[in-house]
Amino acid sequence: MTTKPNSDLITFENPKPERDFTIRIDIPEFTCLCPMTGQPDFAKLIIEYVPAKLCVELKGLKLYMWTFRERGAFHEAVTNEILDHIVAAIAPNFMRLRAEFNVRGGIYTTVIAEHRNPVWQVPELVNLP
């Protein structure tokens, strides 16, 4: 395999920093290991963010996600760790990470973690008729 997991997140300049817009990234094949049993956990990750100066590059994000495949992590911990790493790399105005884990022992788990830049002003919602 020529491509290997990598924990370095790659970024690029926001092409339109003067405008608030939302980027949504769906990662349907996230995997990590249960820290109790070592069995694989599967999840769909949904990242939504309003960039400030930087955006996260998708191939680098994919390689970053691969670093969790052989690591044991509780759902709550891994969701917050991923959010913290991406926020540290790009300092977005807003970011939400929704991790929807597949059933384990008859229980589904969804963890939602958010980051909000305290100086960012949320734009007023426009309701169209």
UniProtKB/TrEMBL annotation:
Give the record's pathway.
tRNA modification; tRNA-queuosine biosynthesis
* Primary site of residence: cytoplasm
Q: Where is the active site?
A: 34, 41
Q: Which residues does the record give as substrate binding sites? A: 56-58, 75-76
Report the EC code(s) recorded for this entry. Answer: 1.7.1.13
- Which Pfam families does the annotation name? QueF
Pull one GO CC term from this UniProt entry: cytoplasm
Give the highest taxon in the source lineage: Bacteria
The molecular function terms of the Gene Ontology recorded here are:
preQ1 synthase activity
Q: How would you classify this enzyme at the top EC level? A: oxidoreductase
**What are the entry keywords?**
Cytoplasm, NADP, Oxidoreductase, Queuosine biosynthesis
Q: Which BP terms does GO give this entry?
A: tRNA queuosine(34) biosynthetic process
Q: Which HAMAP family does this entry report, sorted A to Z? A: QueF_type1
Which family does the record assign?
Answer: Belongs to the GTP cyclohydrolase I family. QueF type 1 subfamily.
Role of this protein: Catalyzes the NADPH-dependent reduction of 7-cyano-7-deazaguanine (preQ0) to 7-aminomethyl-7-deazaguanine (preQ1).
User: What protein does this entry describe?
Assistant: NADPH-dependent 7-cyano-7-deazaguanine reductase
Supply the source organism for this entry: Methylomonas lenta
